[in-house]
Amino acid sequence: MNALLAAEATDTTARNLTIILFLVFVAVTLGITVWASRQTKSATDFYAGGRSFSGFQNGMAIGGDYMSAASFLGIAGIIALYGYDGFLYSIGFLVAWLVALLLVAELLRNSGRYTMADVLAFRMRQRPVRTAAAVSTITVSIFYLLAQMVGAGALVALLLGIKPGQTFLGMDADAAKVWTIILVGALMIVYVTVGGMKGTTYVQIVKAFLLMSGAIVMAFMVGLAYKFNLSSLLGDAADASGKGAAFLEPGLRYGKETPGDSLATFYSKMDLLSLGIALVLGTAGLPHILIRFYTVPTAKAARKSVLWAIGIIGTFYLLTLALGFGAAALVGGENITAQDPAGNTAAPQLAQALGERYLGGELGGATLLAVIAAVAFATILAVVAGLTLASSSSLAHDFYANVIKRGEASERQEVNVARISAFGIGAVAIVLAIFAQSLNVAFLVALAFAVAASGNLPAILYSLFWKRFTTSGAVWAIYGGLAMAVILVFFSPVVSGAPTSMFKNSDWQWFPLSNPGLISIPFGFFCGWLGTILSKEPTDERKYAELEVRSLTGAGAH
Amino acid sequence: MSTDAPVGTSPDRYVAMQRSEEFIGLRKTLRGFIFPMTAAFFLWYALYVILSAYARDFMDTKVVGNINVALIFGLLQFVSTFVIAWLYARFADRKFDPVADRLRAEMERGDDA
What we know:
The complex is a heterodimer.
Chain A: H1 2-38, H2 43-48, H3 55-66, H4 69-82, H5 85-111, H6 116-120, H7 126-159, H8 173-225, H9 230-241, H10 262-282, H11 287-290, H12 299-330, H13 333-339, H14 346-358, H15 361-404, H16 411-436, H17 443-465, H18 471-490, H19 517-534, H20 541-553
Chain B: H1 11-19, H2 21-54, H3 56-59, E1 62-64, E2 67-68, H4 69-112
Antiparallel strand pairs in B: 1-2
């Protein structure tokens, strides 16, 4: 009884501390946002932060934009529950940056201005290409946003430890989820409409710093617990997982082998390949990542920022390996699934265990738990702000200014529309997230990567490297890749027909893979090729010369 | 008439630059690095994913203590990513930037004339 009371007292301490730390983060970032708004005068300030960031700053911001709660809590959780297979995810997420570094970042920086479509539409007919790019940008961003916001709602209930039947500030768990979604949505709208790219970038830099610090401290403590002996950490993790040596080998989650069912095994392995290809090709097609390259003054700085990002993101994923296996070993699979069957609380639970061990008992545990929970919220906020900015920029710059106004809108009108768009997109995301909160929408992140890899990446690569590429090719690639990815997922087991589906009580599933990439990515490239060879549109030699010279040398770049 | 051209670099100068030997050489240098390198890391990554799916016995082989081939292979993907990033930075710094900077300056000098 006393232990129970003490435990509750610790819970309350942690909860209060989490809220205080979170409020400090919100206060600091809002302060930065207001400061940034005073420096935001032109369209370039709003869309691209005045192109004034250094390579290192932008590298941090890219990390802040990219390392979502899905990668911090999600990957640590997958490793903690399924062992090795979580590592596969982080490898795909990291290697993907080589596509951005070698093929996209510098050329895009030199030839574009504010959005992905600037490059796609460079030598094409503006209206069809920009419309397609805006549709794709908004679709990808909304998918990603929904996953983050629904995740935020679920996390709050878990991290604040509001159990069924309990209340907090008069709210039960369900009400707390809804209010969290509204709060996260409102904050991202403020960051973007007030601070623009400058404010958003600083929020992401602060978040990246906090996240890296938290991960380093925790990984160091895990190291201490095992005297920095990786083998003994792995051994303990495998023992505590209850799965033995299989825990350290591929196959517990992806590419599962079902004895006696060779078809299920075949599909499961195909699914692993499909996920692998979507992860590695998706990153360089994500609009919210691409627009980050415009925030630096030169292509050289864009290169530096990707190099920093690779260093930061790579280090982070190595740390998550320690966190995931550390959670498996020190918290244990049963304790993790008891809190959250998906394992999203593995990292915070590990923080509590480590704090108790190294920071002086229960208070230390509560403190570290609170810090890590607050970092997780900061993580979500920075990512959703980046997504809102990307989609509102595209709506204003691509759709409003270049499609509706045919390039006749003034800078001021354009930025006003961007602000209104951020508000609108934020509001839509809040409403959708509230409706979707009881559904399993974690697959939306993987879907966003698949759409980016199937539609955006082919269009970008063809634009930059294939002279013959035409307007129809660009439009076909984007709509074809996007439609194929969405349709296949709609008929896949993640949406219906399985116990873990979004709609688990219905069944219209016929496509056997959870990830569409294996089919939709080649299909997107094929559409871009077919659309090009079928169209009679001649190559605009002058425009192509301008694009090539500009993208390689930077002559005439904005 | 060249006086009709908007402020900035006129399209014809881009065409001239694009057809110049130096620019063609620059493009060749860049593509000669990035295309093979992309193929290399993509195949290397694909090999890792395919082995994870289909060569479980090999991946499960223990090397030292509890550290198996799968873990080492995964860590090597990190190493190769860092190394390729470093190689590219070195290539861009030594072989690409000097030429690109010179051509850019040439284009921009022309603008003022």
